[in-house]
Amino acid sequence: MPADADHPDDASAHSGGGLDDATDAKIVTAVSLDARATLAQISQAVGLSVSAVQTRLRRLEARGVITGYRALLNAEAVGKSLSAFIEITPLDPSQPDNAPELLAHLAAIEACHSIAGDASYILFVRVATPRDLEGLIRDIRLAASVSTRTTVVLQTFYENRPIALD
User: How far does Cα 61 stand from its chain's mean position?
Assistant: First the structure.
């Protein structure tokens, strides 16, 4: 079968993980910039037919490249204007490394990252007030038997940026 925009046969096209080629990258970029873009809009942006874009989107979803679509909320508008990074370190270095599981029930934790350095993990959290942050820190310490170091965010210049595919 000859190579075309929908069926690349060049092995080097698969070097981007679940992306087959530059057209897949364009589609993923378009969707990550605007998850509500129509198939027609994406089609126009990448130069393929609507059906070709739909086929590629389904394939990218099936491969786990696109894992979902969601609304981005204005934290202030929903009453969660205080954000912070919380580093956590086990109180006992020999305790099981299961802090992510122990903290998963705390909805104010938006992200949990394993990190290099003195701490084991860094959490990104959003709450309404300093008192709520104090309560969350207490809950984190109790749930995971950890010490914490908190940095409050004063201003966010950008976040939720699309992953650069260049």
Answer: 15
What confidence tens digit (pLDDT) does each residue in 8-67 have?
A: 333 333 445 689 999 999 999 999 999 999 999 999 999 999 999 999 999 999 999 999
Query: Rounded distance, CA 152 to CA 16, Å?
Result: 36
SS3 content of the chain, % helix, strand, coil (to 5): 35, 20, 45
Helical (H) or strand (E) element with 149: strand 146-152
Judge whether 11-62 and 82-152 match in fold: no
CATH 3.40.47.10 fits 82-152, yes or no: no
User: What is the average per-residue pLDDT within 138-145?
Assistant: 98
pTM (2 d.p.): 0.80
Tell me how far apart the alpha carbons of residues 132 and 58 are, in angstroms, rounded to a whole number: 41
How does strand 109-114 pair with strand 146-152? Answer: unpaired
Range 122-134 average pLDDT: 98
Going by DSSP bridges, is the β-strand pair 82-90/121-127 parallel, antiparallel, or unpaired? antiparallel
Average pLDDT for the chain: 90
- Beta strand 109-114 pairing with 121-127: antiparallel
The structural architecture, per CATH, of the domain 11-62 is Orthogonal Bundle (1.10)
